[in-house]
Amino acid sequence: MKTKYITALLFLIVALYSCTEDTLDVERKGTITGTVIDDETGSPLDSVKITTNPGSTTTMTNAKGEFELNDILIDDYSVQAEKETYSTGFEAITVTEGNTSVVAFELKKSSTSNKAPKVPKLVFPEDRATGLGLEVEFIWESSVTDKDELTYTLELRNGKTNEIEVFEVIADTTLVVDNLKLATNYFWEISVSDGKADPVTSSVRQFTTLTSPNNPFLLVKEINGNNVIFSGNEDLTPEGEPDNNLYQLTEESKNSFRPRRNNDVSRIAFLRTIGAETHILTMDEDGSNVQQVTSTIPIAGFNLKHLDYTWANSGGSLLYPNFNKLYSINPNGGSNTMIYQTTDGSLISEVDVAELDQDLLLIKTNDLSGYNVRIFTYRISTASEETVVLENVMGAAGSIDISANGNEILYNLDTSGAQNSIYRLFSSRLFIYNTVTTIITQLETDVVNGQNDYDARFSPSEGAVIFTRAANNTGAVPTVFKKRFDSSQDDDELFTNAYMPDWQ
């Protein structure tokens, strides 16, 4: 008796396993049925060839104009009805698991010998592709046997907002679309027309863009009178085109500038004018989750375009100037504390901190006009200056940046010594001060007379700098460049009509 029970149990286990295995391997399918009639008479049409794209089985209509396609894999299809002396008909349909999808055709008599274009075949992006960039090249195939010129229409739908964009392409079978949104599911299809037969539509494909722009650079562009923050990347192809992979982070309706990224907390701080004041805000890498940090004490000084602040304590705080005082504040807006104040009434315009020595600050001060500049290091724990980098010079200076271990300091100085009421630079050049040797070295860039280099930042590896260059006339269009220390090559042009770069 015990043996019988064991045998029965084994059979049951095998049966259950077989059922489970069959379930895992089964392909989900549905059915397509439909009818085909004459557009004018309403009479059913027999012997109409029925095919699908993507391809499945082929069938013909019966005397009642009916057809049925069984065991069709679930997907989006373009169903084609083709009969001699009639214009070919196309209908889009979705096949769902275990259900019957119904389609109806009303074919028109063909008045000419024109041959309709073939159903477009979508090549790229592949269906359900993920991690695509914010600029996508769409590729498809279609053709006709006559000499008609084909016009293609790309319909692109945002799966989050259901917003539909329509693009028309004549003759060509590729189209580049940029400014797509992050972490968004898109649906696309192509229709083709020869101007004679009814348009023919492809099946529908979908893809998803990457969840993060993964851009190392931040920059600012002026749009409609406001500063707008973007992220971007470097084009490493031999052509090296600028403005690669640009992604807009802030709205064009708000004035946002001076971005500063902190990789420890994966947040970007930036300045924004709010009413009559300027405050520090933070956002995620994709521009979302914007939070205001400062409130009662804004960032303030002689010229907003030349004020700068810094992350500190591995993203645990932000340091910023307010006239002659320097404040520390938590990213959530708490613990707003004054940590330094000038004794002579001079204004603090910029501050930075050494990454590997958070007790060491780099500070720039100036008078109400932006001149009489002092750049020096300051140790918080001893409340004392350590190294004077620059003082008692004529002209404007700034864009200070200190290396990770505090031994090199980057800044710009207008070597013309000019001082004027509009704070115009004439010959700004980049310099590096070595705190160990006290040697000052001018950075050799491709700048020429009549141009200024400024807003410089060390690269994360400190093997290069990123900076802004512009002609010295008022209203000149700025450009962001990169200079590698170990290269004799020309400066790399990264972003056009851009300034205030950051590289972390």
TrEMBL record:
Coiled-coil stretches noted in the UniProt entry, renumbered to this chain: none
Signal peptide start-end: 1-20
One Pfam match: CarboxypepD_reg
Keywords tagged on the record: Signal
PROSITE patterns assigned: PROKAR_LIPOPROTEIN
UniProt key word Kinase: no
Keyword presence, Signal: yes
Superkingdom, taxonomy of origin: Bacteria
Protein name, entry field: Carboxypeptidase-like regulatory domain-containing protein
Native source species: Sediminicola luteus
Upper lineage: Bacteria, Pseudomonadati, Bacteroidota, Flavobacteriia, Flavobacteriales
